[in-house]
Amino acid sequence: MPVITLTINDELVSGRRGESLLEVVREHGITLPTLCHMEGLSERGGCRLCIVEVEGSPRPVPACTTMAREGMLVRTHTTRLIRYRRMIVELLLAERNHYCAVCVSVGHCELQNVAAALGVDHVRYEYLSPRVTMDLSHERFGMDHNRCILCTRCVRVCDEVEGVRTWDIAHRGVRSRIMADLNYPWGESETCTSCGKCVQVCPTGALFTKGAAVGEMVKDPGMLRRVLEGRDRKEWEG
Ligand code: SF4
Ligand code: SF4
Ligand code: FES
Questions:
Q1: What is the mean pLDDT of residues 157-162?
Q2: Of 23, 32, 37, 89, which is best to mutate to test ligand 3, by the most ligand atoms within 8 angstroms of its C-beta?
Q3: 4Fe-4S ferredoxin-type domain: which residues (predicted)?
Q4: What global pTM score does this model have?
């Protein structure tokens, strides 16, 4: 891949053509928070946590869906960006019911980790406190809509890696909900293979293994890489 040169936070850095800004930024040791991004899945650019400022662009752009280009001038941690990232996390926390103390993912939750890293110790917005349900109809797994941040990692892993697309999004705006098949209880899904990939990629306690204790609900971020690399090596072909 041809090498390109760009400036990130006043430092001249190199990247490869075809890489996203997020990839280049991370390759150079700069930490950018992400929630909807997951290596191995298509990019959605939905959570907006990875926003950066690019010279010439009137508004911040998500680094995960913006390609790195020759000569770009990029800033990753301006006061405005840090303020926006805090606001985004606070809005996510206000939108559903994130009672971390009683969540199966407490201590292993990416939302909680990002909030802590950004110094979010209170929420300035009114909590919407929606009445949302849990779906415990699946034999092995559960879905707690209270904790869902609509990152769609579950939708994408099911579609792009497992190849069945059990999950999708129903409704719009704050009423959006992840749904199985055409809004059936997960346990009645005719497409779900019970592979558990969606549970492993979910960044919060929204998707969990039934009966697992908090200490056992550590997600396995390396699972996706192992599956994809194994497929490349044709490990499971007879
Ligand atoms: S368990 Fe597997 S097949 Fe079922 S919804 Fe999750 S990713 Fe899709
Ligand atoms: S269930 Fe989990 S993976 Fe799926 S959209 Fe909600 S937070 Fe993301
Ligand atoms: S990680 Fe880039 S928008 Fe979510």
A1: 97
A2: 37
A3: 139-169, 183-212
A4: 0.94
